[in-house]
Amino acid sequence: MSTCSVYPLPYHANPAEYFAAIRHAPGSVLLDSGRPSAERGRYDLLSAWPLATLAVAPDESGTAFLQRLRATLGQLGEAAIPAPLELPFAGGLIGYLSYDFGRHLEALPHQAQDDLQLPDARFGLYAWALISDHLLGTSQLVFHPTISEAERQRLCEVFSQPVAANSASFSLKGPMQPDLSPEDYRQAFERIQHYIQAGDCYQVNFAQRFRAQCQGDAWTAYCALRAACPTPFSGFQSLPDGGAVLSLSPERFVKVSQRQVETRPIKGTRPRGRDAAEDAANAAELLASPKDRAENLMIVDLLRNDLGRTCRIGSVRVPQLFSLESYPNVHHLVSSVTGELAADKDALDLIAGSFPGGSITGAPKIRAMQIIDELEPTRRGLYCGSLLYLDVRGQMDSSIAIRSLLVKDAQVCCWGGGGIVADSQWQAEYQESITKVKVLLETLQNL
């Protein structure tokens, strides 16, 4: 098997310093672990100038699109990372699946309005990446063996030039406004309670959208948001019309490394306290909450079932249940479900069997998705979808695109939601949907 070539660069903890050099290149994309403030992520990965771009067609089945991704990845060809380096990407696919890609995998109603007109999935095929390893404090360009010497030289030069300071601005033309009034929210909440009492479902993840007209450079907005809310599954993906996906997600969807699978669902949230005592009390209350533990357990059970579709029988485990993770704006309850891919399955089979993530749909999943489509007036688009990479070795990591924004057609949208169960209170759920994105909305408002 051919081996990638690697060109070392000076280490930067903040990937924005390197990404600025390719910000305006076609297909520029950054998967960002939120360093130096966020501590959990190990790698940042950025690239541009894809060899091919693939978007799912409106009437294309999910299976057919995933097969197209598989075939495109095969055309690039397998490659190894030179020992002893451990790097997550040797060339391959980087892009997003929107929540509504689920419509290409399952038969769902079409009640929610598609007013954002975002393709349900969009990927580039990238033969190089700039990867920073925060554990070892290294930054390097990784080139797939098919890249020409001239192109390698060009890319080395791109990242060796000093980058001019970003002078572009971003601003809202008015405050971020919710699409739903509190009364609209209460009515939808009561409808969900009716479905739960009738035995249709146990939990429904219900979300509301906030939006405003905007102007300026989405990258400037992203840099301000990552400073205010650093998270380990952040990302920025430029869109062809000058728009962009901006994600400040704390949640992993599924990771595949040497055929080992892990998913880390988040269910259960409390705001950070105003002082250390209140903060500790909020965290302790979350850890002890029967409601939040029950919600988390429902999703763990759902994900065990989802992973079981593509994992070797008997390999699915729950090594971590109800652990606390704290972020700048909230505490979360997080669990971990692991497995090993079955011999005849790959990472794209795993996506087909488990997308969209159970933590942002509800249980049982398909019925919850039908109820979401009935009660949320507009399609979610990118929100609750996934940003992901999949390389030529079969390595994959993916986020759940919560705390995420879409800048498109001179408008910025942001969504907040949460899981509703039988003993939920509507005012508390309404407030939680705002708490989760408050730091993002306030940061944009103050630009």
UniProtKB/TrEMBL annotation:
Lineage of the species this protein comes from: Bacteria, Pseudomonadati, Pseudomonadota, Gammaproteobacteria, Pseudomonadales
Domain annotation Chorismate-utilising enzyme C-terminal: ranges: 182-436
One Pfam family cited in the UniProt record for this chain: Anth_synt_I_N
Family matches, as NCBIfam families: pabB (TIGR00553)
Domain Anthranilate synthase component I N-terminal positions: 13-135
Gene: pabB
InterPro entries associated with the record: ADC_synth_comp_1, ADC_synthase, Anth_synth_I-like, Anth_synth_I_N, Chorismate_C
Any one GO BP annotation for this protein: folic acid-containing compound biosynthetic process
Protein name: aminodeoxychorismate synthase
Record key words, sorted: Aminotransferase, Transferase
The enzyme's E.C. designation: 2.6.1.85
Enzyme class, broadest EC rank: transferase
GO molecular function: 4-amino-4-deoxychorismate synthase activity
